[in-house]
Design goal:
Oligomer: single chain
Distance between the termini: 26 Å
Order of helices and strands: EEHHHEEEHHHEEEHEEHE
Helix content: 25-40%
Radius of gyration: 18 Å
Number of helices: 8
Shape: globular
Largest sheet: 3 strands, antiparallel
Number of domains: 2
Length: 233
């Protein structure tokens, strides 16, 4: 059975699908080029937060990501691509961008998945309201989406990771302070939607999150479910 993955609040049905999202980024740039698309940067930033040593990878601050040739033989005509991180102090470090996907995920990534679950009714309602007048243009591709079942609501600006950080700061909590409840089987919500994975153990905190999320819906965008997941929902 394929293992699903959360990166920020982006859901991938399998680890392979998540890795394809990373490869789509490094294949879009020339070797040595910095990653410039804001959606790609947001995606990679969320991926850094999943790393088991995210603090070291972030360092004094990430200035930018760069696509590199990881082949030992740099003259080989088909290079192996990867991502490196350039810190604000000019130091460049390796970032094995696929490895965080294989691991259990950082506490931040697990919390992000739980918070995305908690907000599923809100994001689902946002999607339904967007389609009330008919087809909607995909924020990523610009193509019209005719069927609501082919669309999803994604956090774009701010990124979901930043959105979560601001919320936690507003309630005076750190990631490590928040306990999660493991859902042993899919949980059906009042709307009929189903969630799996984790949710918040403290239901009062869950209510506070929903209230905060409800007041800050302007960063959501409608995207095709099949659109490249290099943006941050």
């Amino acid at each position: 059975m394929a293992k699903s993955v959360w990166i920020g609040d982006r859901y991938f049905a399998s680890q392979a699908a998540a890795k394809d999202g990373v490869r789509a980024i490094w294949n879009a740039y020339e070797i040595g080029a910095p990653v410039t698309d804001e959606r790609d940067i947001a995606f990679l930033t969320d991926l850094v937060e999943m790393h088991h040593d995210a603090k070291a990878k972030t360092g004094p601050g990430i200035d930018h990501f760069v696509v590199v040739n990881t082949s030992k033989d740099r003259n080989w005509r088909k290079p192996n691509r990867g991502i490196w991180i350039r810190h604000a102090d000019g130091v460049e470090i390796e970032f094995s961008a696929l490895k965080p996907i294989d691991g259990p995920g950082s506490p931040k990534s697990r919390l992000s998945g739980a918070l995305a679950n908690e907000a599923r009714e809100l994001t689902g309602g946002f999607r339904e309201a967007a389609f009330a007048a008919g087809a909607v243009k995909c924020w990523v591709t610009g193509e019209l989406i005719d069927d609501i079942n082919d669309a999803e609501a994604r956090h774009i600006d701010p990124s979901f990771g930043r959105f979560v950080d601001v919320f936690l700061n507003s309630v005076g909590l750190a990631v490590e302070d928040v306990e999660l409840e493991d859902l042993q089987e899919p949980l059906q919500l009042p709307s009929g939607r189903r969630i799996s994975g984790h949710r918040l153990k403290d239901r009062t905190l869950a209510d506070a999150w929903l209230a905060y999320h409800r007041e800050h819906m302007d960063g959501l965008r409608i995207c095709s479910s099949n659109a490249p997941r290099t943006g941050n929902l």
